[in-house]
Amino acid sequence: MAARHKTSTRKTGRKGATRRASTARRKTGARKGAPKRWLQRVTRESDALDLKKGVFKLTSAKKIASSLKRSAEHSSRRKTGAYRSALSMLTFYINRAGKTLPKAQRDRLQRAKTELRRQFHRDE
Predict the structure, then answer these.
(1) pLDDT tens for residues 85-99?
(2) CA nearest to 109, candidates 71, 61, 72
C-alpha cells in the first residue's frame, strides 16, 4: 500500500490581513469617474491607429487585414511602422477579448494575422 503524504493544515494569521489589505487597496485604487469601458477609451485616445468602426467584426480575414493595413498606412497617430502597428492592434484586440471571444471569430482573426503578413510582404 502506498504511503500517503501528510499535508499541513496549520493556519496563519496573515491570510485575513492580506485579504483586507487587497480589498482596501482595490477600493482606494479606483479613480472616481473613470470610464468603465477601458478598451474603448484606449482604442479611441491612444497613439495606436485610427481604425474603421467594426473592423474586427468583418466576415473575412482578408477584409480585416486590408482594413487594418489601410488604417495603419493612413494613420497619423502611429509611432512605429505600419505593419507593426496593424499587427499590434490585432493582437491587442484578441488578447483583451480573452476567453469570451467565440472560436469562429478567434480563428478568423488568427487568419487575418497571416493575411496581414502576406499583404505587407512579410511572408517567411
Answers:
(1) 889 889 988 998 888
(2) 61
pLDDT score of 40: 72
Reported for 42-45, long-range contacts at CB under 8 A and 24+ positions apart, including other chains, are 43/89
Q: Which pTM was predicted?
A: 0.61
First to last CA, the chain: 56
How many residues in the chain?
Answer: 124
What is the residue-wise DSSP string for 38-88? HHHHHHHHSSS--PPTTGGG-S-HHHHHHHHHHHHHH-SS-SS-HHHHHHH
Q: Which parts of the chain sit beneath pLDDT 50?
A: 28
DSSP state at residue 36: S
Residue type, position 45, single letter: E
